[in-house]
């Protein structure tokens, strides 16, 4: 059913602003259908939003933390009440299956609730009485935060930033991706309505807006999730004014299957398939290359294909039997297709996976049939690049030293997983260079908002989630009251 396109606004200083220029967002399942229009803000409007956040900060920084929590909790309740409507919009603009959109909202709410419950732990001053007097350590808000988010998990990757930033007394200007700008705008409207004007501002657009958000001298911190290449430009833009930064970037997360893995464990194989193909593989922490010990490789591949053919059901995101929808955009379809074609040309074996539930949509929408790539070279693009789509290479390894080296030679280190007997897997996990390593599960199935999340090497800087993620929106301020005011080695 084709609906009238919706229109979302930007939010500047508590007011909804419509722009002359707008950007249509198509439905990846039916690309001829425009789901809605997002504004294209100008540089001047972006500066207005930053100024609004800068002015609002003066009072908001000193607001009562209980008041901030109460406001966030009201927003949480309203988002909860609107889950069905927001999830439907997200599936239409993004392409992810409806259960997946609802899951994204559920994770967002879980995190927002955690942030409300733990913000006091993060900002309560520490008072130390010691032999040389007293020291008070406070955790103060930083200032205006520019938040820039990608299209794959637009709501959770925005609320992961909004909740801790506002709860700790910062103000924010958020810019979502033009590839999924609509549902997240609804969420921002709900949150912004609960807070004083200027505390949460929303702008839309591409490079012009992004460059202002990352170079304007009134911005104190950048919270960015997106590609590593974009992060490099952002670091350059931010260097003039030495901004604080949290960067959550790309990954090439590996799953390592040890010889102690039970290939007859159907639940574990299902978890592995989900960790490769949830959201059509478009998750930063999806397992993007799988290394399997040669002694169980053949059996593993056979059982994996069985599990994948059962769980992967490709089709319309609104078909309740569908587990995997289309890819979000045309560029991504072409990129993933080119990686698979190149691997095949270079001698790899490509095996289609899953059932196609809506064959009539395959040509119309941005669909890619999920594939398994066997016999690729260890250093083929499909193995070393972040494919961010529904394809995965499985490769055999001979010994653990070799697989640890293959894992760690990547420029990335976001998440990883080790599969096998628990203690054996933990031993290997300790040698892995990554921000998170999961045992016998991977990707969002092993995500826990109570603990810090982030990447090592070129997968990022800093951590989100956990109390550490809340604290990353604060500056440590030490107030020293020493008893002995003069240093003995300084002459009279
Ligand atoms: P992207 O880097 O292309 O875009 C991310 C955001 O940056 C968008 O809002 C975009 O408009 C904006 N942007 C583009 N150029 C900019 C500039 N010069 N200055 C400021 N902002 C600019 O990423 P994407 O394609 O939207 O998302 C996919 C990437 O995100 C993948 O690499 C994925 O791994 C990564 N990602 C990482 C995490 C994580 O937590 N580590 C989570 C999700 C996605």
From TrEMBL:
Which molecular function terms from Gene Ontology are attached?
A: oxidoreductase activity, acting on the aldehyde or oxo group of donors, NAD or NADP as acceptor
User: Which superkingdom?
Assistant: Bacteria
Signal peptide residues are none
Q: Which UniProt keywords apply?
A: Oxidoreductase
Catalytic residues in the record? 248
PROSITE patterns xref list: ALDEHYDE_DEHYDR_GLU
Q: Does the keyword ATP-binding apply?
A: no
Q: Which InterPro entries match?
A: Ald_DH/histidinol_DH (IPR016161), Ald_DH_C (IPR016163), Ald_DH_CS_GLU (IPR029510), Ald_DH_N (IPR016162), Aldehyde_DH_dom (IPR015590), LUC3-like (IPR044086)
Which residues are in the Aldehyde dehydrogenase domain? 21-478
> Per its UniProt record, what Pfam families does this chain match?
Aldedh
What family is this protein classified in? Belongs to the aldehyde dehydrogenase family.
What name does the UniProt record give this protein? Aldehyde dehydrogenase
Q: Which organism is it from?
A: Ureibacillus massiliensis 4400831 = CIP 108448 = CCUG 49529
